[in-house]
Amino acid sequence: MELALLYSGGKDSSLAALLLDRFYDVRCVTGTFGLTDDYEHAEAAAESLGFPFDTVELDQAVAGEAVELMQEDGFPRNGIQRVHEHALETIAELDVDAIADGTRRDDRVPTISRAQAQSLEDRHDVDYIAPLSGFGRHAVDRLVDDTFEVEQGPSEEIPKADYEGELRALLVEEHGPGAVADVFPDHEQTYVHGRTD
Question: Would the pTM of this model clear 0.85, i.e. be above it?
Answer without folding.
Answer: yes
